[in-house]
Amino acid sequence: MGVVIPLEEKAEPGIEPLLGLVGADMDRVNQTILSRSASDVSMIPEVANHLISSGGKRLRPMLTLATAGLCGYQGSGHIKLAASVEFMHTATLLHDDVVDESDMRRGKLAARMLWGNEASVLVGDFLLGQAFKMMVEVGSLPCLDVLSSAAAVIAEGEVMQLSAAKDTQTSEDDYLAVIRAKTAALFGAASEVGPLLAGRPKAEIAACRGYGLNLGIAFQLIDDALDYGGTSAKLGKNVGDDFREGKITLPVVLSFRRGTTEQREFWRRTLEKGEIEDADLEAAIATMHKHRALEDTVERARHYGAMARDALELFPSSPWKFALSDVVDFCVNRAF
Amino acid sequence: MGVVIPLEEKAEPGIEPLLGLVGADMDRVNQTILSRSASDVSMIPEVANHLISSGGKRLRPMLTLATAGLCGYQGSGHIKLAASVEFMHTATLLHDDVVDESDMRRGKLAARMLWGNEASVLVGDFLLGQAFKMMVEVGSLPCLDVLSSAAAVIAEGEVMQLSAAKDTQTSEDDYLAVIRAKTAALFGAASEVGPLLAGRPKAEIAACRGYGLNLGIAFQLIDDALDYGGTSAKLGKNVGDDFREGKITLPVVLSFRRGTTEQREFWRRTLEKGEIEDADLEAAIATMHKHRALEDTVERARHYGAMARDALELFPSSPWKFALSDVVDFCVNRAF
């Protein structure tokens, strides 16, 4: 709590200012995550910790801690809610890997490769159950409402994505609806429960939700650009995973719309029919660059990042506000 | 409610008296189930309704309605909680089919065979999210506590079962721990929220929970006996599914313990190594009969059924109490 960043010497935009502010709380969240993924059934902590200890940034729980801090919350409910948010996220990752048949996650073998799809599905369910238990313990019905609604919306977004898979007709709006649901909803909910816990007025609750939601959209846009633009080591997953899975992300949507008849035929063959040959990924990336599809995806992310930042303008200056603003830069700039 | 069953002409033991008492409420639950599995993402209601409309008995939500009735509850929160309970159950079935790689469910193709594993995982997650949303809408923190705890315990039980799969060393106690968690916990929770909603004293809450928990154990024991003793048409699934999946249920535990060295070798080959030949299922059933393993599994079910019935003795006579008692007979007698 006592950490003050002098405004004159503001740290390099990034996640460090936030890490400094939430550090002590984050230790408690990590403790909670550890104790709540424990079980007499040894496979549960094994699978859970494989993923949990694999060095995710824990961005989502930090949003809960930071928005609670921004709103002057004095209690301790934010710790359990932050842990719940991370559990919801981890459960989604476990289930996603089964759905996408992914081999890698955060630079390690995906849990399903080590323990099987069954364990990934069930341990995900366990973490979801534990997440709800913790929320109930905090006892705030408005927070429960926000987080349980997010859980339903996330799953809806995942199914939407599944339905749109391999469909090159997907529009930018369709794509946005998917990422709004599957990614941004949890960022929004994680950021909304802070002011809710603190009993802040409606406008501040909406502001924090808006911050999280737009940050989440920006985050996913960059993620989708990285899938074609990063390196394996940087990504912690294989480059071109989305390509191989026939996932229609914005770089593809833009390249398809802007493409020649021949290029559209290329996207149909590779993504719809799944007929992918050796040099196709390189060809896909080259085509994307030709149409500035990756650059414009990042540009779109900047737009949502700006909206996130503006949502917070309602709040007076504080280290919390600056740190949350820097997180936007961190999310947008990690791509390039 | 106005329905009175004359005690002299008590209906044939079965589920009919309960159906009569909860009929009107059950219509509202079914309406809720239908409206809450709706989504703009058309795959969601398709997958959900495939399973929901496939003629399950809806025993679990009926327990919520009936224990609410038994305890004189006058509100309408039990409708949404009952629908939540059914959604939790449906989500578990969707995920189970993926875990077990089942082809059939309730006499129809399993959802995963029609829409794929992905859809089964994600629609299950959606239903779980909707279940929590409905619980939150009811707004009872004690009920939320009971049901969210059950969600975590159910998943824990499923993982426990996965860990014990193919292990012929599984003891009767190990087996009981699994079915207590994966099946009985939801029966218990479904029965506990009735008196909780009605604001009844602790002893009555515990009594209803005890009723549901023991009924659930009896129910699962019979289910596991049926997997070796029923016919495909009667079961709505393939006879011998558990056998082919290497699931260690009580009929196997008893047959293994009581068996000769040669018979134990048979169980190790078929269940641990999964080397199953054409006549092995028939041989397994014959060995079970030799050791009275199926009969004794039913006998064990009778024991837990009696405990369920006794748990309700705390309550004065009422049509609700008789109907709940008849459900025990229904569950135990459906086997043979």
From TrEMBL, chains A, B:
Top EC class, one word: transferase
Q: Write the record's keywords in alphabetical order, separated by commas.
A: Magnesium, Metal-binding, Transferase
Query: A GO molecular-function term, please?
Result: all-trans-octaprenyl-diphosphate synthase activity
Xref: Pfam families: polyprenyl_synt
Q: Which cofactor does it need?
A: Mg(2+)
What Gene3D superfamilies has UniProt attached to this entry? Farnesyl Diphosphate Synthase
User: Is Metal-binding one of the keywords UniProt gives this record?
Assistant: yes
Q: Name one GO biological process term.
A: isoprenoid biosynthetic process
Chemical reaction(s) catalysed: 5 isopentenyl diphosphate + (2E,6E)-farnesyl diphosphate = all-trans-octaprenyl diphosphate + 5 diphosphate
InterPro entries, per database record: Isoprenoid_synthase_dom_sf, Polyprenyl_synt, Polyprenyl_synt_CS
Point out the signal peptide segment.
none
In the Enzyme Commission scheme, what number(s) does this protein have? 2.5.1.90
Cited function: Supplies octaprenyl diphosphate, the precursor for the side chain of the isoprenoid quinones ubiquinone and menaquinone.
Return the PANTHER family for the record: ALL TRANS-POLYPRENYL-DIPHOSPHATE SYNTHASE PDSS1, GERANYLGERANYL PYROPHOSPHATE SYNTHASE
| Membership in a protein family | Belongs to the FPP/GGPP synthase family.
Question: What is the name of this protein?
Answer: Octaprenyl diphosphate synthase
- Taxonomic lineage of this organism? Bacteria, Pseudomonadati, Pseudomonadota, Alphaproteobacteria, Hyphomicrobiales
